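User: Here's a structure from my thesis project, written as structure tokens. My advisor, Dr. K., wants to see whether a designed sequence matches the one we expressed. Can you design one independently, without my sequence as a hint?
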């Protein structure tokens, strides 16, 4: 572990000597992640990307890519593009990245089940903004907006999200 790893603890996520409150999946932490279970997968997950909405927030890092209205994330386990960023038109199950609410204004992408994915093992474990304190996610890790932006600005190459086993 390094100070640039985000480490989930019972009190929040530790990063660079600070502790940040967070929300995790409504299904708790799991060692056997499955698509749609609402759980956050245990393990060491490299942070492999950053996405942001340029109409709502500035890029916190040069590594951040702009998302637009046609950007989606495939959660169709039966499609070869499962657990990949895709664009409209896409006629399989997916999640919109360009949302009406602010949850995905800034997204850190983890390497969970990526880039080579196992169908049904779960897609899109993101780090994103929470709805409100304590409100669970569908499996992602979520933070208060200001904390998420601070974390994104301070990430380094090789930063990881570390979730202890359940």
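Assistant: Designed independently from the structure alone:
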């Amino acid at each position: 572990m390094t100070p640039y790893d985000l480490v989930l603890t019972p009190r929040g996520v530790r990063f660079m000597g600070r502790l940040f409150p967070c929300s995790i999946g409504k299904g708790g932490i799991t060692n056997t992640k499955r698509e749609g279970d609402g759980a956050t997968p245990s393990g060491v997950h490299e942070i492999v990307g950053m996405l942001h909405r340029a109409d709502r927030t500035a890029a916190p890092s040069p590594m951040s890519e702009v998302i637009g209205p046609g950007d989606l994330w495939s959660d169709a386990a039966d499609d070869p593009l499962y657990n990949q960023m895709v664009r409209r038109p896409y006629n399989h199950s997916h999640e919109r990245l360009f949302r009406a609410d602010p949850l995905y204004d800034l997204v850190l992408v983890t390497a969970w089940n990526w880039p080579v994915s196992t169908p049904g093992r779960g897609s899109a474990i993101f780090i994103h903004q929470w709805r409100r304190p304590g409100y669970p996610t569908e499996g992602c890790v979520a933070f208060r907006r200001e904390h998420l932006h601070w974390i994104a600005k301070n990430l380094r190459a090789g930063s990881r999200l570390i979730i202890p086993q359940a």
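When you compare it with your expressed construct, this may help: The two ends are 19 Å apart (CA to CA).
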